[in-house]
Amino acid sequence: MATRRATNIVWHDHKVTRAVRAAAKGQRPAILWFTGLSGAGKSTIANALESRLLRLGRHTYLLDGDNVRHGFNRDLGFSDADRVENIRRVGEVAKLFVDAGLIVMTAFISPFYADRDLVRNLVGEGEFIEVFVYAPLEVAEARDPKGLYQRARAGEISNFTGIDSPYEEPESPELILDTSKLTVEQSVDALVDYLVKVGLLSVG
Ligand code: ADP
To answer: What is the pTM of this model?
Structure first.
């Protein structure tokens, strides 16, 4: 690997900067990083939030775990090392989208504290918003939207987060959404309130 890594590359400073791109869209870019167990509601809430933001005229992009694994990260599995690489790549892509001036939402289990922190440190202060989408394991497992818990319990899937692979809960996320208590709409409202509070969004 090391011999194939490029060493003679130079960073290009372009005339159109990230500030110009953001200004052209009339918004401040950021990453809304949704983390939580499978079935906690990350994709559902991120989707609903994206619709809401589009209605508010914002420019967005949603990076979804399963979709990214179909293409960009199709070479990666679910070992600890592959999970780390999965999140590292997604973090770099999210960073590029922030550079493009977008409000990026990511929906990945992202079970490891260190990986989420690595992405936090890729972007500027206040540009990484960690959203802990919480549901007790029993609730997520009862929902089982993709039938994955059932397969994990049957031993057909290994390294499944919450079953035989750990989930490290965020220590100080910007927002916690308890989806065993909040409806999807209430979660989206809480997100919009937060974005308004920190000056990333103005409504009305
Ligand atoms: P994840 O992306 O975290 O794996 P999904 O969004 O794919 O989770 O699945 C969550 C499932 O739970 C969906 O089928 C969704 O309709 C359902 N659900 C039930 N109640 C809620 C709620 N209050 N918030 C979010 N999702 C909910």
So the answer is: 0.93
